[in-house]
Structure formats: structure tokens, C-alpha cells
Amino acid sequence: MTRAPTNLLAVRSLLLAHLNVDPNTDRPADLEPAEVGIVGDPAHRGGYHCGSDRVVANDYSVVESSRDRNGLTLDAAALDVGGFEVRSGGRTHTLSSFSIWCVGQCAANAADTGDIREIIYSPDGTTVKRWDRLGKRTSGDSSHLWHTHFSFFRDATKAGRDQRPLFRRYLTSIGLIEAAPTPPVEDEMELSDRLTRDTGRPQRTVDDVLADLSNLRNWLVSTPNSPGVVDAPAPGSPLAVLLAAAGRPAAEVDEPALAGELLRVLTPQAIAAAIPTSLAKEVADELARRLVA
Length: 293
Known about the structure:
elongated, 2 domains, five-stranded antiparallel β-sheet
């Protein structure tokens, strides 16, 4: 027999928890349990309130979408929400405003609406409209003047996908659920610590790279043995290897001539091109931070 799937029961519980303001009293302003339905009554045949045991020939809730054909099970795939009136955030919220908000989210293709096939509702209590993701229908019968119908693609109920996010967002937007706190922004020290420790290469920090560039630049543009700068390439360093490849020991190099030649080649563009893409942004950010320090 047709059954109510767990994911739609969870939506039902969420709505009742926040819109049935006084659960101990049956009153018109509250959304009561009897006003939130999933499975059609025993006489109901065809449509999303029915599972595979109650669908009919050429049932629109099966034949119009492969998502429904492939997702057909004994589960119903619809939710009816009745009238309510709740005051929150200085405003009164009703079934109509709730329905209009949900339709707007669906029309905007919000990420948490992708499993909703249609919404049949009344924006004003006098006319019935239908938002249909497949664009096949625009209205519904007069019972939707006092309740709103949500159809879900059957593959969503078959997969058990959580359908609460859209409805939780609505309850949050009107102030019945407290919004999740914004994650704290890391302070500058935390960002700097992370920056100097992560270059994508083990044992290699951004500070190491910047120091190498600074030392190379100072050695190239300074006279030998200038205080505060690197005197000569360290043995085994890239520049020492370069000089060895040229066939001349570092001590015998015409440093001004070599500096001029390397500065001609070692343009900012060339240096930038030599920095790995994964590291370029971190280097640029760190240089910018140091320039304004």
C-alpha cells in the first residue's frame, strides 16, 4: 500500500515544529497535524499522493518525466500544507506568503528546489495558480484556495534525498529558526601563519622563496662584500651551478658584467613565469602585505 517516505515525513515534522505554535490547542492560526498530508485517502487514485499501487493509466505523475518513471515505488511523492498565520520579525506570515516565497525560489532555480516538480497554490485566497517545472499546467482545483500542494519528482523520494533545506530556509528567513552564525574571519596572524607554511612543497615556505629572490637580487646589484647582502652564491646553489656550467669559478667571475647580463634577462615577467602557479597568488599577497607594512 502507498506509504509516506521518510524524507517527506521529515519536512512535515519541521513545519509542524515551528508553525503549530500551540500544539496543545487546535486553533485556526496554527498549522495542525491534520493539515499536513502526504498519502492520499483510500479513495484517492492517481497523482503524486499515490504510490505504485494507486497510479492510473497514463498517470501524469508517472508518464511526463523520466525522473518519475524511474523513481516510481510505493512511496507517495507529495506534501499538502494547510493554512496558518504566525507573527515573526514584525510581520504576519501566512500560507499565501509562504507559497509565494516557495514559488519564487523554484522559479529562480535555487539549488534546494531541484526535486520539486510543481506547486499548486493560491497567492490571494481567491485564485489558484500552478508553478510547473515542466511547464505543462498553470492551475488547479479550488481546494488549493486553502491548502498548497507540493509535488516532488519520484526519484527524489526513492533516493531518500533530504527535502528540508528549502523549508528550513523559509523558516529562517521569517525568523522562526535562528540563522547559523557566520564563521569567524581568521585574523591576519592566522592567515600569515598559514601562508608561510603552505607552498605545496614539503620543507619549502613562501618566506624561503622570498628570501631567495631577495638574496639573488641583492647579490646581483651590490658590490662584493657589501654589508647586509649575500656575498656570493652558496656552494651548490642554483646560481653557483649556473656559473660552474659556464666554466668559471664564482671567485673569478666579472660580477658587474654578470649582474648586468642577468638583470637584462631576469625581468619581473621572467621571475613571475618561473614561480609555480600554485604559489603565485600566495607570493603576490605576501609581497603586497609587506609593501604596505
